[in-house]
Design brief:
A hairpin with a 6-residue loop joins β2 and β3. Helices cover about 45% and strands about 15% of the residues. The radius of gyration is 24 Å and the shape is globular. The longest helix is centred in the middle third of the chain and has 23 residues. The chain is an alpha+beta fold and about 450 residues long. The strands form two sheets. Strands 1, 4, 5, 6, 7, 8, 9, 10, 11, 12, 13 and 14 form a twelve-stranded mixed β-sheet that branches. It has a two-stranded antiparallel ribbon with strand order 2-3. The protein is built from 17 helices and 14 strands. The model has no long low-confidence stretch (mean pLDDT about 95). α6 crosses α8 and α10 runs antiparallel to α11.
Length: about 450
């Protein structure tokens, strides 16, 4: 059965519109100011003032500029927070995001080739191949993917590999690199399906392709540092320090010193396909072939939030993934469900559960940031302090306030040190993960 819109239908819709007392007032307000401004509720400002009972001191906010490196910035920020406390580093100290960006794109190219070969026998219009070709690589990623990079390549301070035009503005390099990868996919699929190429022949072709990718990335970002000197002055007494001829791996071990295996991903996904207290991974999602696997433990929201609170109480900031664009006022730095009252403005029902939003594409993870504080009243959270990576000209010098009910609806992932997990949760986290489809919303940060 199908229903076409008739002239009588339109006449009825017009009559309903004209009979509403506020139609003309709202039409003038919305057409002049736009939907967001017309629906903004100033009460969200007073409800989310930037004061917190637990408030970690974390220094200056970084700026990812016109790139999708939020996951990378957020992860490196949690590490520099710890370094700043240990070594009395200045507020403007940063680890090099460009260094990780280079190796991430290089490794993602190889990971793409791996998936092309795995799916070479499938038709080009199969969902998996179409998904793979839609974005051969992107700026996005996951905590576990950064761990895989660090375990292989270490880290460097920003002074050892500063930002470039292309790291700050990645659209151009992404266009070229994805063009290159799709071009190579045509060749690899032909070698498998038409030429019956041997593994040695495929490997030879792949090495040539990777050599070309390396050259493209080196032109775009500069070659990554292999040895460097680390020089800095301490924040409090301005004392000069110099550590010469370090490798990236040596620098990570000496100055960050984390056991990355201690940090695990916890998700909050209340959909029917993801049972709580089980672990999950995503098919075809990663960067380093043979590197660390993406793995999430799914927990109810009360347990999810308590782990974040426990880690903040322990003096450690918390990497998290969310749907940042929903009900978020960037200039004021507010993420709250009453920021924009769309339902009241248009007199329509827009309510969906968190599970429904995930299942029907209304919400998904699109941005990673860092929790650096929480306001507890009677030991219950009311709002959270968030370090973003959009520079210091938004929010409260780059920091945002997130209401607790916004976290309930739009936060999906946190990274927690295992020492804050109970024995029960540790056993659950050790389970073999269930494999989700490549397009699952728990993989959309990448």
């Amino acid at each position: 059965m199908s229903f076409a819109i008739s002239n009588d239908d339109i006449a009825n819709f017009r009559a309903d519109y004209d009979n509403r007392r506020d139609s003309q007032v709202l039409e003038r307000a919305v057409t002049k100011n736009g939907v967001r401004n017309a629906s903004f509720d100033w009460h969200s400002i007073k409800d989310n003032d930037p004061h917190f009972s637990i408030d970690l001191k974390t220094g200056n906010v970084a700026d990812q500029k016109q790139s999708g490196r939020c996951w990378m910035f957020a992860a490196l920020n949690t590490m520099r927070h710890d370094m700043q406390q240990k070594f009395n580093l200045p507020d403007n100290f940063e680890l090099s995001q460009s260094y990780q960006f280079f190796w991430d794109k290089f490794e993602k190219a190889n990971y793409f080739y791996e998936n092309v070969l795995k799916t070479a026998k499938k038709d080009a219009d199969s969902r998996k191949v179409a998904w793979l070709m839609a974005a051969p690589q992107s700026d996005g990623g996951q905590w576990d993917m950064l761990c895989a990079l660090i375990e292989k390549y270490g880290v460097v301070p920003k002074t050892a590999m500063p930002e470039s035009f292309n790291s700050n503005n990645s659209r151009g390099i992404n266009e070229v690199l994805n063009n290159k990868l799709r071009h190579d996919a045509v060749i690899l699929r032909k070698m498998v399906n038409e030429d019956n190429a041997s593994d040695d022949e495929l490997n030879t072709a792949r090495q040539k392709m990777l050599n070309e990718v390396y050259r493209i990335l080196a032109y775009a970002f500069g070659e990554p540092a292999t040895h460097f000197d680390f020089e800095y002055r301490t924040k409090k007494d301005n004392e000069y320090h110099r550590d010469a001829n370090l490798t990236p791996q040596e620098f990570f071990k000496k100055y960050v010193g984390w056991n990355l295996e201690d940090y695990v991903s916890i998700i909050q996904a209340p959909t029917a396909d993801k049972e709580y207290h089980k672990t999950y991974t995503i098919d075809m999602l990663g960067n380093v072939v043979g590197g660390r696997q993406i793995k999430h433990l799914n927990l109810p929201m009360d347990e999810f939030k308590q782990l974040a609170i426990d880690q903040l109480k322990g003096g450690e900031s918390v990497w998290f993934g969310s749907d940042v664009v929903k009900y978020s006022e960037t200039k004021l730095g507010i993420m709250a469900l009453n920021t924009y009252l769309y339902s009241e403005l248009f007199d329509v029902d827009l309510d969906m559960t968190k599970a429904q939003m995930l299942d029907y594409g209304q919400s998904m993870m699109d941005h990673a940031m860092v929790l650096t504080g929480v306001d507890l009243v009677d030991d219950q959270p009311t709002k959270w302090r968030v370090e973003n990576s959009w520079g210091n000209k938004v929010g409260h010098k780059g920091y945002f306030v997130m209401s607790d009910d916004w976290m309930d609806q739009y936060c999906f992932q946190i990274v927690i040190n295992k020492k804050y997990l109970s024995d029960k949760l540790l056993k659950e986290q050790a389970q073999e993960p269930i494999v989700l489809k490549p397009w699952d919303p728990m993989g959309t940060l990448a």
